[in-house]
Amino acid sequence: MNCLFCRILQGEIPAKPVFSDELCFAFADIQPQAPTHILLIPRRHIDSLVQATAEDADLLGHLLATAAQIARQLQLDHGGYRVVLNTGDDGGQTVHHLHLHLLGGRSLAWPPG
Ligand code: AMP
Ligand code: ZN
């Protein structure tokens, strides 16, 4: 298996866990772009949002709801935060296992570069 995030899920590559359940896993980004920068991934490999289908709707909804739950636990909900889903080359996706970025703890600029 040569997917980096699948290898993290298998415990082959270490990560700092933040949240885990039967459908997804969250861990600290190795190169944080904000005081809080967490990656949230489904346990089932999906390359990107391009490959997601209507059958993945529940899973995608669960990822979003989980991101909100983690943000609440980290008390980011008062100041706000950003959830990002980079998709494909033009979307800036570098790891081809679908993931949400949860960024917070500072004021974030818009638009992105
Ligand atoms: P993206 O560019 O949207 O595909 O995001 C990939 C993210 O994975 C980047 O923010 C990287 O810093 C992060 N990343 C890469 N390798 C690791 C790792 N071993 N542990 C945690 N985060 C990683
Ligand atoms: Zn994977």
Offer a concise description of the structure.
With 113 residues, the chain is of the alpha+beta class. Helix content is 20%, strand content 22%.
Which features characterize this protein?
HIT family, subunit A; binds zinc ion; 113 residues; 2 helices; 5-stranded antiparallel beta sheet
Low-confidence stretches: none
Mean pLDDT, rounded to whole units? 97
Ends apart, CA distance between termini: 32 Å
Number of helices: 2
**SSE order, one letter for each helix or strand:** HEEEHEE
Main-sheet strand order equals 1-2-3-5-4
What is the name of the CATH topology?
A: HIT family, subunit A
Percent of residues in beta strands?
15-25%
Report the count of strand segments: 5
Ligands, deduplicated: adenosine monophosphate, zinc ion
**Helix proportion range:** 10-25%
Largest sheet: 5 strands, antiparallel
At the first level of CATH, the class is Alpha Beta
- The helix/strand class is alpha+beta
The whole-angstrom Rg is 14 Å
List the topology elements.
Layout: H1 4-9, E1 17-20, E2 24-28, E3 36-42, H2 57-73, E4 81-84, E5 100-104
Could you walk me through the main structural features you see in this protein, from its secondary elements to its overall organization?
- The protein has two helices and five strands.
- The protein has 113 residues and is α+β, with helices and mostly antiparallel strands.
- The model has no long low-confidence stretch (mean pLDDT 97).
- The chain starts with a helix and ends in a 9-residue tail after the last strand.
- Helices cover 20% and strands 22% of the residues.
- A hairpin with a 7-residue loop joins β2 (24-28) and β3.
- It has a five-stranded antiparallel sheet with strand order 1-2-3-5-4, covered by helices on one side.
- The protein binds adenosine monophosphate and zinc ion.
- Zinc ion binds at residues 3, 5-6, 45, 97.
